Amino acid sequence: MICPIESKADSPVIIALDFASPLEADPFLALWGGREKPFIKVGVQLFYAAGPVWVKELVEAGYSVFLDLKLHDIPHTVAGAVRSLTGLGVRLLTLHASGGRTMMEAAREAAEASSGPEPPRLLAVTQLTSTDDRMLNEELGISGSVRDSVLRLARLAHRSGIDGVVCSGEEAGWIKEQVSGEMLTVTPGIRLDGQERGDQKRVMTPEAAVHAGADLLVVGRPITRSADPVATYEAIVEQIKKGRGHRE
Ligand SMILES: O=c1ccn([C@@H]2O[C@H](COP(=O)(O)O)[C@@H](O)[C@H]2O)c(=O)[nH]1
Which residues, if any, are the signal sequence (predicted)? Predict the structure, then answer.
């Protein structure tokens, strides 16, 4: 089943607007002029440059916005950040599951207590898609596989009342089966066949990710660096339809 948070255009693709400033992001979004507005993700680079007022303007202009700030601090501070951000009207907001249960519960309670627009659904980042087993074990000193760690963090997020997780396509199906079918699975690390991975370690094609159980796909450079971003976006949407066909 495709989750109800997906974009109005019946497309589960979220475009990661990893640009330096609105001077780059605005002309990029204008390429969709006359078409259904895409679901967009604003991450730390653009948020730090553009600020909350610009994000609110996007929401007011009709964009569904995923604010990917990956909050990670003591519970009191994260709760305060969530309170500051809920008024923006964004649909999704991230925090790191590794901040622990008390931090995630504090974030959820802060979102629920908001009196403004509908609060964002919270997503817990499990292990970044740029992490592989070697990095986890040798650099971070965490034993076991990335998959085990992702499942453990997804369970913790679920127990903390968090709506969904950010994970790779490789883990989306396991989370649905082993944690909860209700957990929203949002998957970056999307690459088209044969495309450069760049810094991503756990990658999947759009079709394979949806087939594996991903609800929403985050796609940045494959679209933003494409010679024809709108055509690439539409080709990815087509691939997803195929992936859904295989899943049903
Ligand atoms: O584990 C994670 C969490 C977030 N991201 C974000 O998704 C996009 C991916 O961009 P690409 O250019 O398609 O690689 C980017 O904004 C990351 O901050 C992630 O990649 N992995």
Answer: none
**Cα 18 from Cα 198, distance rounded (Å):** 14
The complex's ipTM works out to 0.99
Which of ligand 1's atoms lies nearest the C-alpha of 41?
Answer: 16
Probe residue for ligand 1, chosen from 48, 149, 205, 218 as the CB with the greatest number of ligand atoms within 8 Å: 218
Based on the structure, what is the number of domains in the chain? 1
The domain spanning residue 204 has which CATH number?
Answer: 3.20.20.70
- pLDDT tens for 21-71 read 999 999 999 999 999 999 999 999 999 999 999 999 999 999 999 999 999
Marked catalytic residue, from 8, 37, 56, 70: 70
Predicted TM-score of the model (pTM) = 0.95
Whether 8 is catalytic is no
- CB-based burial label for 134 (10 Å; 0-12, 13-18, 19+): exposed
